[in-house]
Structures are given as C-alpha cells and as structure tokens.
C-alpha cells in the first residue's frame, strides 16, 4: 500500500463518518444542548455558591461560567468519545464493522482514522458551543481560539480512544447504559471540570488524588490553558500518554489473536 | 502438476475452538482459480467460523490459511487485497446510498476516485442495479441488497471470492440469478469461488464440494468423485451417508 492509498483510505473513513453525522443532525444539537444547559442553568445557579480563587491560567477573579467552560468543552469531547464507542458497538452488531476490518490496511490505521473522524466532529461541536458562549460574554483572544484547536484534537483523540477500548469490551448495545454510569459520570464529576482540585482536596484527599490522575482532568486543564494561549505541559504529557495507552489497548482489543470479535460468539 | 500461482486458497490443518467447544478440527482443502467450490454443511457445522478465519477476523488456533500463497496471518494485507467477501450478515450501511457504500468500500482498498466510479458503474450495470445507484440501501429489496454486496465484493478485482450463505432468505428466481452470475464469473474471468451453503440444491454436478460436518471435512473433491466414493446417486444421499443425517429440502 502506497502513502497516497493511505490518504484515500483515511479520506473514505472520514467522509463516511461525516455522512453519518450529517444524517443525524439531532445528535449534533443534542450534543450542544447538554453543555449549554450546564452553562446557562447550572453555572448561573452556582455562580454565587462556588467561589474560584485566582489560580493559573487566570490572572484575575473570574465568573463561574468562565471557569466551567473548559470542563463543558471537555464534556462535549467525552460524550462524543462515548458516541464513538456506541457507534462501534452498533457497527459490530449491524455487521458493517466487518467491512472495515477486512480492508488490507493495518488495523491500527483503520481504527485511528475512525478516531480522527470522530474527534473532528466533536471539535466542530466545541467551536459552535464557543460561538454561542461568546454571546454570553464568555470569550477569549484569537490566539486562544487557535491554540485551542490542537488541545481539543489531542483530548478528543484520547477520549475517543477510550471509547474505542470500551467498545471492544461491551458485548451488546444494551450494555451501553452502564458506560454512562460507570465511565462518563465518574470521569466528569471526579475531575477539575466543575471545581478546582484544591477545592476537592479540602473535602477529601482521596478524591483529590483520584481526580489528579483522572485523564479527563488533564484534558480539561489542557483546554483551560490553551484558551489563554498557554500550554500546560503537565497535562499535555498526561493526555498524550493516556491517549497512546488507550489507543494501544483498543487496537489490542480488536486484535484477531485475542479474538474479541470471536468472543461475541 | 498445478501451477502454484493458480492455487487461490489453501486451508491447511485449521482448528478453532470457542472455549471448550471445537468449532473446526484440522480442516484442510484447497481451491484453484476458476473453480466454483461449494462448502456444504448444516447450520453450526463451522462454515462461518472458517470464513472469519479466512478473512482474518479471528486467528486460527492451529494450521495455516494462504490466499495466493500469502499467509492470512503474517501477510494479511497482500492476502486481503486478493480477496472479495460476502458475509452471511448484511454489511452495507442502510442509511447511506448504494454509491456512498461502494465508494467507502473502494476507499478502504485505496482505489482512486476516478477509477472507483468506473468500477462502480461496471459492476452495478452487470448486476442490473445501475439505476439504484443513488438510492438508500434501506429502500432496496433483500435480493437487491445481496446483489449490491456481490458487486461490492468484486470492485477491487479480487481473484478469490468467498460468500457465506449468500442466498439465504431470497426467493428462488433471485437465488438462481445470483448463482448463475457467480458461476459465470468463474467460467469467464477465472475467479475462484468458495460458496458456503446449507441448501443442497445449490450444488451442481460440475462443482467441487467440501462437506463440513461438526467442524470436520468429511468429503472434498468433484461432485462426481464424491458420488462415486460414497456409492450414491446424488449429493443429498452422499451427504446423508457421510454425516448420518437424513433430511429433506435443506440440510
């Protein structure tokens, strides 16, 4: 297979995901409504309850809506990553996964292409969310919007890779509800999305430690700093490492030697 | 002596188990270019498992599978390039059009867009499906979906095509059309075909047959050869004698 054929294959997978996405416009709006409800209702309600001190990257006092915006961008990526997982399980049950897996391209390449396509959709949603938030006076600089792109891409890939790994573990579509309870909610709440880590530390050291190693915390912090044109190197390291780890175990999960597909029998 | 390059598929001593249950037990046979080989067996005989091994979806626990001398496990890219597959389960995306599905498949084989459009026209026209190019797959009949899947499996010009129960659920005219088309591909284009079925009336006297029973090959050869070895007059009787199963219309 030549490099140009790899590009054609990537393009084909990307286009298919876009076509499916365009046919499910309800999914696009549903994904936007969720963080907007949090922003307009939850954040407005908790504005006076939760005070946020001046911590990097902030140089002054900020309103709570500004604080949770990176967390809500992360939420878009997290739900999209799980959507990737859901669509993988659906594809497997419907049989279309086989079309992908009998392609002569390496399996890691096929799965990574699918992840990139999924993450791109999430990035689009994230920017539309920021556009709406801009009317709510939650804004950053042009540099911030530009610097955000690689942070969203990296975090989106990491969370999609996690979704892919989960899809290799789920036996049936019905089991997906469990993912909501055991993956999405704990990851979201035990992170710095809604409150800074030092606040968690005041309540429970254990919870603070869990949140400090939660991949979602690092995705949120990477996004938070990127919105100000800064790089949080600590989070960049963790997001990259977690992303690579999740991708490796996801490819392993779809490895015929391990027979994850065979296990469905 | 057969030219080595004309051996399309070699299955050598292949075994596979699901937990304690042995699905395939030392299965061996080969197929040459231009041959139409029927893999005949009851439901649960191991046909679909064998197809999953040939396509690399699972790895065999023992034995080797080679497609035009390329090992499916160690040289999967070269092997899969030469292989066209029609799975038992429908694998088209129902919400996409026929064209979108076929272009997606060709992208998965790295085929250039311009050539892909030509191949798409050619294969759909051969199947009398060209007027359905823009239709969503969901709106096609069961027979049309099957024909699109066969057209799709041929887009990258494979030299070996394997079909797993491709006519199940279709009416008799659709079954006969599909069978005649695939047999024609063997005759005219030298395509090697492995056709898995439990429908005994799909076997012709001129075919080769591999009878799979409880994960073992109990007969392998030309139909006439199998009849003479078993001392029977038709493949239904031969199947009954080899497997101890007496049966009616289907296996």
Tell me what you see in this structure:
The complex is a heterodimer of chains A (265) and B (251). Chain A is mostly helical and 265 residues long. Chain A has one domain (3-264). Chain A has 11 helices and no strands. Chain A has helices spanning 3-23, 25-46, 64-94, 96-101, 107-135, 142-169, 176-189, 197-203, 205-213, 215-226, 233-253. In chain A, helix 1 (3-23) packs across helix 5, helix 6 runs antiparallel to helix 10 (215-226) and helix 8 packs antiparallel against helix 9 (205-213). Chain A is globular. Chain B is an alpha/beta fold and 251 residues long. Chain B has 2 domains: 1-82 and 159-251, Rossmann fold, CATH 3.40.50.300; 94-157. Chain B is 34% helix and 26% strand. Chain B is built from 8 helices and 10 strands. In chain B, the strands form 2 sheets. In chain B, strands 6-7-8-3-9-10 form a 6-stranded mixed β-sheet, with helices on both faces. The two termini of chain B are 35 Å apart. The mean pLDDT of chain B is 89. Chain A binds chain B through residues 1-2, 4-6, 8-9, 11-13, 15-16, 19-20, 23, 94-96, 98-106, 110, 256-257, 259, 261-262, 265, and chain B through 18, 52, 55-59, 76-78, 80-81, 83, 85, 87, 89-96, 100, 103-113.
Q: What structural class do you assign from the helix and strand content of chain A? A: mainly alpha
CATH class bucket of the largest domain in chain B:
Alpha Beta
Number of strands of chain B: 10
Categorize the overall geometry of chain B: globular
β-strand percent of chain A reads under 5%
In N-to-C order, the SSE pattern of chain A is HHHHHHHHHHH
Structural class of chain B: alpha/beta
